[in-house]
Write a structure and sequence with these properties.
Elements: H1 2-20, H2 22-59, E1 64-69, H3 75-79, E2 85-87, H4 92-101, E3 105-120, E4 123-132, H5 135-139, E5 144-147, H6 152-157, E6 161-164, H7 166-172, E7 182-185, E8 189-197, E9 218-222, H8 223-230, E10 233-238, E11 241-246, E12 251-256, H9 262-276, E13 282-285, H10 287-330, H11 332-340, H12 345-382, H13 390-416, H14 420-426
């Protein structure tokens, strides 16, 4: 009980010393407050950005292989001919070969896209026309707000129906329900609207061959209808220019039986296509590879940001050591009297460490409070996604407490080493 009472008295003395100079104590811990808060906020921003990127990649499917048509820049030089019609990209024959030859494939989802003017009355917009299979909507996790998606019967019967994006509905059909109305494409084709997609945030470019996408300006029609009505040759006229392209398929998404077989299957697909496409007018993207790269990048990014923010914690620790050294100078007489009355060096060290720990704990708690609140402000002000992980809070708080106590050891040892007689004489 005597020992417990002694330590309790030392603790109360240390707390009183801290509270005696409230403003100085508060200013001393500001370095730790901002250090802890900055670590949490910076890691929250990094985590939010990383999760958003990884969600975009994961939405492509970790068991999927995406083969995209790429317009070759050297086609004319390779062929040695000049033509107003460009002929490149994936074909239905490629689709058939992949389906028949490559193993471990569960499903193939072809798609063709091109830009044309879409019009209803006086309202017009440049839209992305997509010839798709019904599985396209589920694969891209597209929400539906009105009507229905395309179904297999639309594909089989080559119906003139379409599903339009959110932006198309708002700009071409402002204030009215587009379901059942017909939208004009390329000035000559009409498609009856059977569904309206919900708004989906435009995605950034993913990988080397997947460009940024805005699904809200899409008009999706059955792929069979696209081929029978519009044909493989796409003509586009605008402001005096004219272009003509022969393009059968823009993209084929291949779903594999197991994610462990994705890379080997992708190699087989690439090898097969290389035999029939000497101009390399295609690109193979593996979302699983992109996801692994994004996760590795996140770890590096988190380390760099955490190390940068940790400098603030180091500055905060130096601030605590500075003020504790000043405190030792101010309390030389007190230390001398305590030593003269029988206090041991360990008692002096413990008292000053309690003061340091109190300052560090207060600064850490305040920093954690700010760090948990600040990401919400960042999201509200900038629109950036943020996500606070328990790990970031634990690391920031742990490093802050450790830095504060470590930087308090030297002043505590300096106080304990004061000679009692010399301390009283100097006082």
């Amino acid at each position: 009980m005597i020992t417990l009472g002694r330590y309790q008295a030392m603790f109360l003395t240390a707390i009183k010393s801290v509270l005696m100079h409230k403003l100085r104590s508060f200013l001393t811990v500001l370095g730790l407050v901002f250090g802890v808060a900055s670590v949490i906020v910076m890691l929250a921003v990094a985590e939010g950005a990383s999760r958003e990127a990884q969600e975009q990649i994961a939405s492509l499917g970790v068991r999927n292989i995406i083969v995209r048509t790429v317009k070759p820049s050297v086609q004319e030089a390779e062929t040695g001919t000049r033509s107003f019609e460009q002929n490149f990209g994936l074909t239905y024959n490629d689709l058939r070969r992949v389906d028949e030859i490559v193993e471990n494939i569960v499903a193939l989802t072809p798609m063709r896209e091109f830009t044309q003017e879409a019009r209803y009355g006086a309202n017009a917009i440049d839209a992305q026309i997509l010839g798709v299979h019904p599985s396209y909507f589920e694969m891209n996790r597209i929400p539906l707000v009105r009507g229905r998606f395309l179904d297999p019967s639309d594909l089989a019967e080559r119906r003139n129906v379409c599903v339009i994006g959110d932006e198309i509905a708002k700009r071409v059909f402002p204030g009215s329900d587009p379901i059942g109305k017909s939208i004009q494409v390329a000035g000559e084709h009409f498609f009856r609207i059977v569904g309206v997609q919900g708004y989906k945030t435009p995605s950034a470019g993913v990988g080397s061959s997947l460009s940024a996408q805005n699904l809200n300006t899409n008009i999706a029609i059955p792929l069979t209808t696209d081929r029978s009505r519009i044909g493989d040759v796409i003509e586009r006229r605008e402001q005096g220019s004219f272009s003509r392209q022969r393009l059968e398929l823009s993209q084929v998404t291949i779903e594999v039986t197991d994610k462990d077989l994705v890379k080997s299957t992708a190699s087989a697909v690439e090898g097969l296509l290389a035999k029939f496409h000497p101009l390399k007018d295609y690109a193979v993207t593996i979302p699983l590879d992109l996801l692994e790269q994004a996760q590795a990048t996140q770890r590096i990014f988190n380390f760099v940001l955490g190390a940068t923010a940790a400098i603030s914690l180091l500055v905060g620790g130096i601030g605590i050591m500075n003020i504790m050294l000043a405190t030792v100078s101010e309390r030389t007489r007190e230390i001398g009297i305590r030593r003269a009355l029988g206090a041991k060096q360990a008692d002096i060290i413990l008292q000053f460490l309690i003061e340091t720990a109190s300052l560090s704990s207060f600064g850490t708690l305040l920093g954690v409070a700010f760090g948990l609140a600040a990401p919400r402000w960042v999201t509200w002000l900038s629109g950036m996604e943020t996500f606070v992980t328990p790990t970031s809070v634990i690391i920031a708080a742990g490093v802050s407490l450790t830095v504060g106590i470590i930087f308090g050891i030297y002043p505590a040892r300096q106080a304990a080493r004061l000679d009692p007689i010399e301390a009283l004489r100097r006082a």
